Amino acid sequence: MSETLLLTVLLRHDQSNNLEDIQGHMKRMDWWERFPGEGVEIVSWTVAMGLGQIVTLRLPPALLPRVNVELERSAWSVFRTECYPTYDFVPVREMIRERVRNGGQ
Question: Using an 8 Å Cβ cutoff, are 10 and 51 in contact?
């Protein structure tokens, strides 16, 4: 398996735009075809009412600049973007749980 990273992207709603404005902008920018880009896997895409959209991507580190440029090109002006490198904590949690069960910390 090639080296990848997880990237969590918050697309915070700009409440000065209504849904019709946002959808129109995304269509004009060809968002639905261009984001997140070839070679990038969408792990999850969640809508959080009052917050916006939370997108988790899996990608090779070399594609990070391309994802960034696409966010700048098409998401800005309808979303405030925040990006966080993330990782899957479930295996770590299970390791800690087992260690605690065996008397460790």
Answer: yes
Share of the chain above pLDDT 70, in %: 98
Q: What share of the chain is helix, strand, coil (3-state, %, to 5)?
A: 40, 30, 30
Q: With b meaning 16 or more CB within 10 Å and e meaning fewer, what string describes 31-55?
A: beeebbeeebeeeeeeeeeeebebb
d(CA 6, CA 66): 15
- pLDDT of 79-102, one tens digit each? 999 999 988 889 999 999 999 999
The amino acid present at 53, given as its one-letter code, is Q
DSSP H stretches of helix in 6-79: 19-28, 31-34, 64-70
Question: What are the distances in angstroms from CA 7 to CA 35, 84, 86?
Answer: 13, 6, 6
